[in-house]
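Lab meeting, action items carried over

1. Structure of the two-component assembly. Owner: GW. Status: complete.
Input record:
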Amino acid sequence: MKIDLVDIPDLQLSPTCKWRIRALSVNGKMPAIEALAEWESIRLADYKRIVKVMKIVSEKLRVTDQRHVKKTEKTHLYGDVYEMRSHTGKARLMFFYDNRNESVVVCTNPYVKGKGNQDAAFKLCSQLKEIYEANT
Amino acid sequence: MIMKRNVNKDELPAEVAELLANTPKTTQKTLDRIAAANRKLENDPEFLAEVERAKFVNDLLEGMEQRGVTVSELAKRIGKSRQYVHRVLNEDNRVSFTLKTMITLCHAVGLRYGSYVADKNETKAQFSIQYKGTSPVHLPSYTPKLVRDNRISVATLFNRNLEKDTGNIIKANFSNDVRMPA
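Predicted assembly:
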């Protein structure tokens, strides 16, 4: 299994940012990147909101504003996994923080409100986090 | 405490396998498309203003939470209605986010407003340091340009973050070409 992290292409972060925003790649497949590409073409307003949240996340140790970032309520099951929210929109991007080697936010998988299940998306993020940590 | 499974390096949970099966292999074309979209956003003043406004509101909310300032209390302190404060906190477009508004809100919460202007091409550097007998610590990023321009020295960063403990440092790492001061 090949686990990599890729930068969100041309996402410009502030020089004072604390976290580098990256996407998880498993065997060359990047669910977060594919979702961003889809939103950019069919949900542009949501895409902009998620990029906005990425910029906020990169600059704060933790984001307290739940309109932008929400942590799973089932931390006893899924650990510290979060979602970036497009607030009034439907797009959500699951992620976790990794501070082991470099300070990085790892975007894992998408969730679209009204399609699928938020709890399942958090679970997927948690599973991807375990795989990532076991392989890096 | 979360129970951790032992993850076999080649075994994938069914949900992850399904996600990957439904995800195409990411191509350079996809990455280029996102890059183009992000470059466009970086030149969109309206979008960048929204980002700054959201960051401001996040800081304001954090300050209110830390100081126990409620919406009602903030409204009272600035002589406005609760509805107005709610609109500010919801980043409502009907509220004019002038510098004066932002400074007034900060002062009412007990915060100081600060702005930051940088060279458009400035890059981010990572700064890590390792003490004897400990793992590397990753410190907040800083701007190499500021260092190069002598507006802030690496020594200042050391002092700011690590006080007078440099004798115990065994390894310091900079991801960009920034030299340690003599």
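2. GW to write a short summary for the group page. Key points so far: DSSP finds eight helices and three strands in chain B. Chain B touches chain A through 55 residues (CB under 8 Å).
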